[in-house]
Amino acid sequence: MTFLPLSIAVLTVSDTRTPDTDKSGNYLAQAIEAAGHRCAEGVIVPDDIYQIRSQVSAWIAAAHIDVIITTGGTGFTGRDTTPDALTPLFDHAIPGFGEQFRALSYQEIGSSTIQSRCIAGFANRTVIFALPGSTGACRTGWEGLIQEQLDSRHQPCNFANLVKRGDGQHGH
C-alpha cells in the first residue's frame, strides 16, 4: 500500500492567540508535516460562530483542502461555539470520533473530559475534526485517532481513502 499525503488546513479558534502564542495550532501543523501530509493553511479566528463557519465553509468548497482540523471553542463557556458552527455544515457526522476522543481523554484527565464537545464530520468529501484548545488535547486527538485515520495504509479502513483529494485521486 502507498501512503497518500493529504492537504490539511488548521483553524485555531481563539480571541487571544496570535501566530506566536498558538501552541496548539503550531503543534498540529508540525505533527501534520511530520506524518508526511501538507499543512496547506493555518488561520486564527475569534470565537465567533459566523467567522468559524465562514472560514470552514471556504475550505470545504476549496478543491485543494482534503481535511480540516480545528482547535478551540469546544467547551461550555459563552464563547465556545465551534461545534455549533460546524454541525450545520456536516453532510455526515462522525459520532464515534467524539466518543473515542473522550474515552482516550478520560485516561488523562478523568471525568473532566465530559466538558469537551469535540466533534467530527464530513462535508463535500472533506473530513473535519474539532479538537479542544489545549495542546495536550490536540496531541491526544492527533496521536490517538486522527493520524492513524488519515493514513491511507491503515486497515481495515481509514478516512484518507474517503476524502475528495485535491490531486484528483480518491478512494471509494
TrEMBL record:
The reply on keyword S-adenosyl-L-methionine is no
Q: Which residues form the MoaB/Mog domain?
A: 9-153
The reply to whether Methyltransferase figures as a keyword in the UniProt entry is no
In terms of InterPro entries, this protein maps to: MoaB, MoaB/Mog-like_dom_sf, MoaB/Mog_dom, MoaB_proteobac, MoCF_biosynth_CS
Q: Which CDD domains match?
A: MogA_MoaB (cd00886)
The record, for Pfam families, names: MoCF_biosynth
- Pathway(s) served: Cofactor biosynthesis; molybdopterin biosynthesis
**SMART domains found in the cross-reference section:** MoCF_biosynth
Keyword annotations = Molybdenum cofactor biosynthesis
Give the record's family classification: Belongs to the MoaB/Mog family.
Function statement: May be involved in the biosynthesis of molybdopterin.
Q: What is this protein called?
A: Molybdenum cofactor biosynthesis protein B
Q: Which species does the entry assign this protein to?
A: Larsenimonas suaedae
Q: What is the lineage of its organism?
A: Bacteria, Pseudomonadati, Pseudomonadota, Gammaproteobacteria, Oceanospirillales
Recorded name of the encoding gene = moaB
